[in-house]
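New to this. Please check this protein:
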Amino acid sequence: MSISTSVWPRRVGLLLVVLGLAWWGFTALRAEPEAGPVFTTATIDRGDLALTVAATGTLSALVTVEIGSQVSGRIASLHADFNSEVKEGDLIARIDPSLFEAAVQRARANLAVAQANVARARIQLTEAQRLERRISALTERKLVSESELDTARAQVATTRADLRSAEASVQQTRASLVEAEANLRFTNIVSPTDGIVLSRAVNVGQTVAASLQAPVLFTLAQDLRDMQVVAAISEADIGQLEEGQQVSFTVDAFPNEPFEGTLRQIRNAANVLQNVVTFDAVIDVDNPELKLRPGMTANVSILIAEEQDAVRIPNAALRFRPPGATPAARKRGSGVVWTLSPTGEPEARAVQLGLNDGQYTEWRGDDAEPGLEVLVGRADEAAAQGGGSRRFRMF
Protein backbone atom coordinates (compact mmCIF):
# COMPACT_ATOMS: atom_id res chain seq x y z
CA MET A 1 0.00 0.00 0.00
CA SER A 2 1.42 3.42 -0.96
CA ILE A 3 0.92 6.80 0.71
CA SER A 4 0.34 9.83 -1.38
CA THR A 5 3.19 12.26 -1.40
CA SER A 6 0.76 15.20 -1.00
CA VAL A 7 0.02 14.30 2.65
CA TRP A 8 3.57 14.91 3.90
CA PRO A 9 3.65 18.68 3.34
CA ARG A 10 0.43 19.14 5.35
CA ARG A 11 1.78 17.11 8.28
CA VAL A 12 5.08 18.94 8.27
CA GLY A 13 3.32 22.32 8.29
CA LEU A 14 1.09 21.31 11.22
CA LEU A 15 4.15 20.18 13.16
CA LEU A 16 5.89 23.48 12.53
CA VAL A 17 2.85 25.40 13.78
CA VAL A 18 2.75 23.37 17.01
CA LEU A 19 6.44 23.88 17.60
CA GLY A 20 6.10 27.61 16.97
CA LEU A 21 3.26 27.96 19.47
CA ALA A 22 5.23 26.02 22.08
CA TRP A 23 8.27 28.22 21.58
CA TRP A 24 6.16 31.40 21.86
CA GLY A 25 4.59 30.20 25.10
CA PHE A 26 7.97 29.33 26.54
CA THR A 27 9.46 32.71 25.69
CA ALA A 28 6.37 34.53 26.97
CA LEU A 29 6.59 32.69 30.27
CA ARG A 30 10.23 33.61 30.66
CA ALA A 31 9.43 37.22 29.89
CA GLU A 32 6.71 37.48 32.65
CA PRO A 33 7.77 40.10 35.17
CA GLU A 34 8.74 38.87 38.64
CA ALA A 35 5.85 39.04 41.12
CA GLY A 36 6.11 41.48 44.00
CA PRO A 37 5.72 40.65 47.72
CA VAL A 38 2.53 39.07 49.03
CA PHE A 39 0.90 40.84 52.04
CA THR A 40 -1.35 39.58 54.79
CA THR A 41 -4.22 41.74 55.90
CA ALA A 42 -6.67 42.14 58.77
CA THR A 43 -10.09 43.77 58.95
CA ILE A 44 -10.82 46.75 61.15
CA ASP A 45 -13.88 45.94 63.26
CA ARG A 46 -15.96 47.18 66.16
CA GLY A 47 -15.71 45.92 69.73
CA ASP A 48 -15.06 46.78 73.34
CA LEU A 49 -11.67 47.98 74.57
CA ALA A 50 -10.46 47.90 78.14
CA LEU A 51 -7.15 49.12 79.55
CA THR A 52 -6.24 47.12 82.64
CA VAL A 53 -3.35 46.64 85.03
CA ALA A 54 -2.58 43.00 85.84
CA ALA A 55 -1.10 41.86 89.14
CA THR A 56 -1.14 38.99 91.60
CA GLY A 57 -2.05 39.13 95.25
CA THR A 58 -3.10 37.11 98.28
CA LEU A 59 -6.52 36.94 99.91
CA SER A 60 -6.76 37.58 103.63
CA ALA A 61 -9.31 38.48 106.25
CA LEU A 62 -9.79 42.15 107.01
CA VAL A 63 -8.78 41.53 110.63
CA THR A 64 -6.70 38.57 111.78
CA VAL A 65 -6.06 38.12 115.50
CA GLU A 66 -3.38 35.89 117.00
CA ILE A 67 -4.57 34.62 120.39
CA GLY A 68 -1.81 33.78 122.84
CA SER A 69 -1.30 33.04 126.50
CA GLN A 70 0.03 35.47 129.10
CA VAL A 71 0.81 32.65 131.55
CA SER A 72 2.75 29.43 131.28
CA GLY A 73 1.32 26.03 132.00
CA ARG A 74 -0.17 22.82 130.67
CA ILE A 75 -3.16 22.92 128.33
CA ALA A 76 -5.94 21.29 130.33
CA SER A 77 -8.75 21.52 127.75
CA LEU A 78 -9.59 22.88 124.31
CA HIS A 79 -12.99 24.28 123.41
CA ALA A 80 -12.38 25.35 119.79
CA ASP A 81 -10.85 23.73 116.74
CA PHE A 82 -10.09 24.57 113.10
CA ASN A 83 -13.00 26.40 111.43
CA SER A 84 -14.87 26.81 114.72
CA GLU A 85 -17.10 29.88 114.82
CA VAL A 86 -16.68 31.71 118.12
CA LYS A 87 -18.19 34.78 119.76
CA GLU A 88 -16.45 37.45 121.78
CA GLY A 89 -15.81 36.15 125.31
CA ASP A 90 -16.22 32.45 124.45
CA LEU A 91 -13.87 30.07 126.27
CA ILE A 92 -11.66 28.43 123.64
CA ALA A 93 -8.92 26.85 125.84
CA ARG A 94 -7.99 26.41 129.48
CA ILE A 95 -4.57 26.14 131.15
CA ASP A 96 -4.25 24.00 134.28
CA PRO A 97 -5.15 26.49 137.05
CA SER A 98 -3.91 24.55 140.11
CA LEU A 99 -0.65 26.49 140.55
CA PHE A 100 -2.40 29.80 140.02
CA GLU A 101 -5.15 28.95 142.52
CA ALA A 102 -2.44 28.22 145.07
CA ALA A 103 -0.80 31.56 144.29
CA VAL A 104 -4.11 33.32 144.92
CA GLN A 105 -4.53 31.61 148.28
CA ARG A 106 -0.96 32.52 149.24
CA ALA A 107 -1.53 36.16 148.28
CA ARG A 108 -4.73 36.28 150.30
CA ALA A 109 -2.91 34.87 153.35
CA ASN A 110 -0.13 37.45 152.97
CA LEU A 111 -2.74 40.18 152.79
CA ALA A 112 -4.35 38.94 156.01
CA VAL A 113 -0.97 38.96 157.74
CA ALA A 114 -0.28 42.50 156.53
CA GLN A 115 -3.65 43.70 157.73
CA ALA A 116 -3.00 42.13 161.17
CA ASN A 117 0.34 43.94 161.31
CA VAL A 118 -1.47 47.22 160.64
CA ALA A 119 -3.85 46.54 163.51
CA ARG A 120 -0.93 45.71 165.82
CA ALA A 121 0.94 48.87 164.78
CA ARG A 122 -2.12 50.99 165.50
CA ILE A 123 -2.42 49.51 168.98
CA GLN A 124 1.26 50.13 169.65
CA LEU A 125 0.94 53.71 168.43
CA THR A 126 -2.05 54.30 170.70
CA GLU A 127 -0.15 52.92 173.69
CA ALA A 128 2.95 55.00 172.89
CA GLN A 129 0.86 58.16 172.62
CA ARG A 130 -0.81 57.46 176.01
CA LEU A 131 2.59 56.92 177.63
CA GLU A 132 3.88 60.15 176.10
CA ARG A 133 0.99 62.12 177.54
CA ARG A 134 1.51 60.64 181.02
CA ILE A 135 5.26 61.35 181.01
CA SER A 136 4.63 64.85 179.69
CA ALA A 137 2.30 65.59 182.66
CA LEU A 138 4.82 64.24 185.11
CA THR A 139 7.56 66.31 183.53
CA GLU A 140 5.53 69.50 183.98
CA ARG A 141 5.39 68.70 187.69
CA LYS A 142 9.12 67.98 187.76
CA LEU A 143 8.51 64.36 188.75
CA VAL A 144 10.45 62.83 185.84
CA SER A 145 13.39 64.01 183.83
CA GLU A 146 13.26 65.55 180.37
CA SER A 147 15.16 62.56 178.96
CA GLU A 148 12.28 60.23 179.76
CA LEU A 149 9.90 62.55 177.90
CA ASP A 150 12.24 62.51 174.89
CA THR A 151 12.30 58.72 174.97
CA ALA A 152 8.49 58.59 175.04
CA ARG A 153 8.21 60.96 172.11
CA ALA A 154 10.73 58.90 170.12
CA GLN A 155 8.69 55.80 170.81
CA VAL A 156 5.58 57.51 169.40
CA ALA A 157 7.44 58.45 166.25
CA THR A 158 8.76 54.91 165.87
CA THR A 159 5.39 53.25 166.26
CA ARG A 160 3.87 55.77 163.84
CA ALA A 161 6.51 54.81 161.26
CA ASP A 162 5.80 51.12 161.94
CA LEU A 163 2.13 51.77 161.23
CA ARG A 164 2.89 53.45 157.90
CA SER A 165 5.14 50.52 156.98
CA ALA A 166 2.43 48.03 157.87
CA GLU A 167 -0.12 49.98 155.79
CA ALA A 168 2.26 49.98 152.82
CA SER A 169 2.72 46.25 153.22
CA VAL A 170 -1.04 45.86 152.98
CA GLN A 171 -1.06 47.72 149.69
CA GLN A 172 1.80 45.58 148.40
CA THR A 173 0.19 42.29 149.34
CA ARG A 174 -3.13 43.49 147.95
CA ALA A 175 -1.41 44.19 144.61
CA SER A 176 0.12 40.71 144.71
CA LEU A 177 -3.35 39.30 145.26
CA VAL A 178 -4.71 41.24 142.26
CA GLU A 179 -1.85 39.91 140.14
CA ALA A 180 -2.43 36.34 141.27
CA GLU A 181 -6.14 36.61 140.58
CA ALA A 182 -5.43 38.06 137.10
CA ASN A 183 -3.04 35.20 136.32
CA LEU A 184 -5.74 32.78 137.43
CA ARG A 185 -8.20 34.43 135.04
CA PHE A 186 -5.62 34.24 132.26
CA THR A 187 -5.72 30.47 132.49
CA ASN A 188 -9.06 30.79 130.69
CA ILE A 189 -8.23 31.64 127.05
CA VAL A 190 -11.21 33.52 125.64
CA SER A 191 -11.94 34.90 122.20
CA PRO A 192 -11.39 38.67 121.95
CA THR A 193 -13.81 39.04 119.02
CA ASP A 194 -16.36 37.26 116.88
CA GLY A 195 -14.83 35.21 114.11
CA ILE A 196 -13.66 31.85 112.84
CA VAL A 197 -10.62 29.86 113.93
CA LEU A 198 -8.11 29.64 111.09
CA SER A 199 -5.46 27.64 112.92
CA ARG A 200 -4.83 25.89 116.24
CA ALA A 201 -1.20 25.48 117.39
CA VAL A 202 -1.61 23.44 120.62
CA ASN A 203 -3.07 20.17 121.86
CA VAL A 204 -4.36 19.02 125.23
CA GLY A 205 -1.47 18.19 127.55
CA GLN A 206 1.00 20.43 125.75
CA THR A 207 2.92 22.91 127.91
CA VAL A 208 3.13 26.50 126.80
CA ALA A 209 5.89 28.82 128.01
CA ALA A 210 5.21 32.55 128.15
CA SER A 211 8.48 33.63 129.74
CA LEU A 212 9.80 35.77 126.85
CA GLN A 213 6.78 36.30 124.61
CA ALA A 214 3.19 35.17 124.46
CA PRO A 215 2.97 31.91 122.47
CA VAL A 216 0.32 31.88 119.72
CA LEU A 217 -2.35 29.28 120.47
CA PHE A 218 -5.00 30.20 117.88
CA THR A 219 -5.26 32.41 114.80
CA LEU A 220 -8.70 33.96 114.52
CA ALA A 221 -10.19 35.79 111.54
CA GLN A 222 -13.12 38.09 111.78
CA ASP A 223 -16.10 37.68 109.45
CA LEU A 224 -14.83 36.06 106.23
CA ARG A 225 -17.75 37.55 104.32
CA ASP A 226 -15.61 40.69 104.10
CA MET A 227 -12.09 40.01 102.84
CA GLN A 228 -9.25 41.83 101.13
CA VAL A 229 -6.63 41.20 98.47
CA VAL A 230 -3.16 42.68 98.90
CA ALA A 231 -1.75 42.88 95.36
CA ALA A 232 1.79 43.80 94.29
CA ILE A 233 1.63 46.55 91.63
CA SER A 234 4.63 47.36 89.45
CA GLU A 235 6.05 50.86 89.85
CA ALA A 236 5.43 51.38 86.11
CA ASP A 237 1.68 50.90 86.62
CA ILE A 238 1.14 52.47 90.04
CA GLY A 239 0.62 55.95 88.59
CA GLN A 240 -2.50 54.79 86.74
CA LEU A 241 -4.28 53.60 89.88
CA GLU A 242 -6.72 55.56 92.00
CA GLU A 243 -8.67 54.61 95.08
CA GLY A 244 -12.20 53.52 94.24
CA GLN A 245 -11.37 51.83 90.92
CA GLN A 246 -13.19 48.60 90.11
CA VAL A 247 -11.19 45.39 90.23
CA SER A 248 -11.87 41.88 88.95
CA PHE A 249 -9.87 38.79 89.79
CA THR A 250 -9.89 35.02 89.61
CA VAL A 251 -8.51 32.31 91.85
CA ASP A 252 -7.18 28.92 90.86
CA ALA A 253 -9.98 27.17 92.74
CA PHE A 254 -12.60 28.82 90.48
CA PRO A 255 -10.71 29.71 87.27
CA ASN A 256 -13.86 30.40 85.24
CA GLU A 257 -15.64 32.50 87.86
CA PRO A 258 -14.65 36.18 88.11
CA PHE A 259 -14.89 37.98 91.44
CA GLU A 260 -15.31 41.71 91.94
CA GLY A 261 -13.68 44.18 94.32
CA THR A 262 -12.88 47.85 94.93
CA LEU A 263 -9.44 49.40 95.29
CA ARG A 264 -9.40 50.81 98.84
CA GLN A 265 -5.79 51.80 99.49
CA ILE A 266 -2.44 52.24 97.73
CA ARG A 267 0.32 51.93 100.29
CA ASN A 268 3.33 54.22 100.03
CA ALA A 269 5.87 51.73 101.35
CA ALA A 270 7.81 50.19 98.47
CA ASN A 271 8.75 46.51 98.28
CA VAL A 272 12.09 45.78 96.58
CA LEU A 273 12.87 42.21 95.50
CA GLN A 274 15.79 41.54 93.16
CA ASN A 275 15.78 45.20 92.08
CA VAL A 276 12.07 45.02 91.18
CA VAL A 277 10.00 47.70 92.93
CA THR A 278 6.35 47.10 93.71
CA PHE A 279 3.71 48.76 95.85
CA ASP A 280 0.89 47.09 97.78
CA ALA A 281 -2.67 47.81 96.66
CA VAL A 282 -5.43 46.78 99.09
CA ILE A 283 -8.68 45.63 97.46
CA ASP A 284 -11.93 45.12 99.38
CA VAL A 285 -13.82 41.98 98.40
CA ASP A 286 -17.31 40.74 99.28
CA ASN A 287 -17.44 37.00 99.98
CA PRO A 288 -21.11 36.27 100.77
CA GLU A 289 -20.94 32.59 99.74
CA LEU A 290 -17.64 32.01 101.60
CA LYS A 291 -16.04 30.56 98.46
CA LEU A 292 -12.88 32.58 98.95
CA ARG A 293 -10.45 31.48 101.65
CA PRO A 294 -7.52 33.26 103.28
CA GLY A 295 -4.22 32.56 101.53
CA MET A 296 -5.65 32.01 98.05
CA THR A 297 -3.70 33.57 95.17
CA ALA A 298 -5.70 36.16 93.24
CA ASN A 299 -4.97 37.03 89.62
CA VAL A 300 -6.01 40.68 89.63
CA SER A 301 -7.10 42.91 86.75
CA ILE A 302 -7.68 46.58 87.62
CA LEU A 303 -9.79 48.51 85.11
CA ILE A 304 -8.16 51.81 84.14
CA ALA A 305 -10.33 52.88 81.17
CA GLU A 306 -12.77 51.31 78.73
CA GLU A 307 -14.55 52.06 75.45
CA GLN A 308 -17.59 50.17 74.21
CA ASP A 309 -18.34 49.50 70.54
CA ALA A 310 -15.16 51.25 69.46
CA VAL A 311 -13.61 51.04 65.98
CA ARG A 312 -10.57 48.83 66.59
CA ILE A 313 -7.30 48.69 64.69
CA PRO A 314 -5.09 45.64 65.27
CA ASN A 315 -1.84 46.83 66.79
CA ALA A 316 0.03 44.76 64.19
CA ALA A 317 -1.33 47.11 61.50
CA LEU A 318 0.10 50.14 63.32
CA ARG A 319 3.52 48.49 63.61
CA PHE A 320 3.74 47.31 59.99
CA ARG A 321 5.60 49.23 57.28
CA PRO A 322 5.95 47.93 53.67
CA PRO A 323 9.47 47.25 52.38
CA GLY A 324 11.14 50.42 51.20
CA ALA A 325 8.57 52.74 52.80
CA THR A 326 10.00 55.63 54.82
CA PRO A 327 8.65 56.22 58.33
CA ALA A 328 5.98 58.94 58.31
CA ALA A 329 6.13 61.83 60.75
CA ARG A 330 3.54 61.29 63.47
CA LYS A 331 1.82 63.65 65.83
CA ARG A 332 1.01 62.73 69.35
CA GLY A 333 -2.04 60.48 69.45
CA SER A 334 -1.85 59.66 65.73
CA GLY A 335 -0.64 56.71 63.69
CA VAL A 336 -0.41 55.27 60.19
CA VAL A 337 -1.96 52.17 58.64
CA TRP A 338 -1.31 50.79 55.19
CA THR A 339 -3.89 49.66 52.63
CA LEU A 340 -3.69 48.43 49.03
CA SER A 341 -4.67 50.84 46.26
CA PRO A 342 -6.79 49.67 43.27
CA THR A 343 -3.50 49.18 41.38
CA GLY A 344 -2.13 46.94 44.14
CA GLU A 345 0.29 49.48 45.56
CA PRO A 346 0.55 49.99 49.37
CA GLU A 347 -0.61 53.43 50.43
CA ALA A 348 -0.44 55.07 53.85
CA ARG A 349 -3.43 56.39 55.75
CA ALA A 350 -3.20 58.58 58.84
CA VAL A 351 -5.46 57.65 61.76
CA GLN A 352 -6.31 59.31 65.09
CA LEU A 353 -5.66 56.90 67.92
CA GLY A 354 -7.32 56.44 71.28
CA LEU A 355 -7.37 53.70 73.91
CA ASN A 356 -4.87 50.84 73.52
CA ASP A 357 -5.49 47.55 75.33
CA GLY A 358 -2.31 45.86 74.11
CA GLN A 359 -3.98 44.03 71.22
CA TYR A 360 -6.20 46.66 69.61
CA THR A 361 -6.14 50.46 69.45
CA GLU A 362 -9.21 52.67 69.13
CA TRP A 363 -9.60 54.61 65.84
CA ARG A 364 -11.17 57.93 66.71
CA GLY A 365 -12.64 60.55 64.45
CA ASP A 366 -15.29 60.80 61.75
CA ASP A 367 -13.03 59.08 59.24
CA ALA A 368 -12.97 55.82 61.20
CA GLU A 369 -13.90 53.06 58.76
CA PRO A 370 -14.96 49.66 60.12
CA GLY A 371 -14.45 46.87 57.60
CA LEU A 372 -11.35 48.42 56.05
CA GLU A 373 -8.65 45.91 55.08
CA VAL A 374 -5.25 46.96 56.39
CA LEU A 375 -1.82 45.40 55.90
CA VAL A 376 -0.37 43.63 58.92
CA GLY A 377 2.62 41.77 57.45
CA ARG A 378 4.16 39.86 54.59
CA ALA A 379 2.87 36.43 53.65
CA ASP A 380 6.31 34.85 53.59
CA GLU A 381 6.97 36.06 57.14
CA ALA A 382 3.52 34.92 58.30
CA ALA A 383 4.11 31.48 56.74
CA ALA A 384 7.45 31.21 58.49
CA GLN A 385 5.71 31.94 61.79
CA GLY A 386 2.84 29.54 61.08
CA GLY A 387 0.26 32.31 60.74
CA GLY A 388 -2.32 32.92 58.07
CA SER A 389 -4.84 35.49 56.89
CA ARG A 390 -6.14 36.90 53.66
CA ARG A 391 -3.38 37.48 51.06
CA PHE A 392 -2.92 40.06 48.30
CA ARG A 393 -0.14 40.02 45.70
CA MET A 394 1.35 43.30 44.51
CA PHE A 395 2.42 43.31 40.79
